[in-house]
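Milestone M4 deliverable, item 7.
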Amino acid sequence: MNDTLASAPHQAARPGTPERPAEMPRRHYSLATLRSIIAAWGERKRFRWELEQMSKDNPHLIDDIGLTRRQVEAEIAKPFWRR
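Output delivered:
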């Protein structure tokens, strides 16, 4: 059976499918909110890319902005959805 065509109750009954706790309601976001979230993700991704370039090209600037090499590496390693 094609998973995309399966009904929600059928999919929830499959072994290994995580179930949503009753106290965790399903979230519905407005289009403006979704755009804002996507924009924030883009800014984080761009910031981390620029930080990585700075650490490669001008490592002395890392000291000037008050970060350690370890802090920079930790920030660069974060996925874009994490703050």
